[in-house]
Amino acid sequence: MQGRTAQQVVQDANAAIGANAVAAAQRLPSGETILTFYEKEGRAKWESDERLLRTFGPGATLRTKTFTVLAYRVPTTLSIDNQKEAIAKIYSQNPSLKDRVTITRVGRARKDAEKPTAPLYIGVVEPEQANYLIRQGLLWGSMLYNCEPYFKECRVTQCLQCWEYGHIAKHCTKAKRCGYCATTGHSSEECLRKEDNRAYRCSVCRNSRARHTA
Predict the structure, then answer these.
(1) In the chain, at which residue ranges do the beta strands (DSSP E only) sit?
(2) Which region, left, alpha or beta, applies to residue 59 given φ > 0 means left and ψ of -120 to 50 means alpha?
């Protein structure tokens, strides 16, 4: 999509597949592009078509959108290192899901790896499948765990480069600021005044009287 408008990408994609199936295109900060189709059936028909990938040039790959469900307090004895094996184990304890829900991935937060129980993120391919899993719950070790929708958009994201919210350092185009004194030219780790709370300035508040860190 680089160098092209959203309208041009839509036109190129529809020309590539020879059908008026793509409705919109959106460029993400990561460099990925989201395509929206007019019909769900159209998406299923064209999303794996190599002609569509050619719209984005050599090396382009497809990542199907997933809908995430959060299961609470699932024992971390369920290893997620081997995705295929973890998904197979979930199906073995939840046979009713096998023909109703297509699980594409499972995961948990890195900080929860050493805890005995932790929320488990379960990715499925359709919102109807997510709703089914939410109604049924997740069985594991003869225990039923409640599930609810997970919305990534509701997660608070803060950049560790400029300290503003809504993006991460990997995609930041702003100047690096210190999280302690709010000045540019050095990182938070290099700040010589990090132990002096009188020097604290918040680069998010942009208030010279704010005596706290970002």
Answers:
(1) 22-27, 33-37, 67-75, 103-107, 117-124, 138-140, 143-145, 147-149
(2) left
Q: Is 81 exposed, middle or buried (0-12, 13-18, 19+ CB in 10 A)?
A: exposed
- Residue-wise DSSP of 161-173: TT--BSS-GGG--
Q: pLDDT per residue over 110-153, tens digit each?
A: 888 788 999 999 999 888 999 999 999 999 998 999 999 887 66
144 and 201 co-located in one domain: no
Structural domain containing residue 180:
156-214
Per DSSP, the three-state class of 158 is strand
Decide if 1 is inside a domain: no
108, 139: one domain = yes
Q: What is this structure's pTM?
A: 0.57
Which of 120, 136, 153 finishes a domain?
Answer: 153
**For residue 204, is it within any domain?**
yes
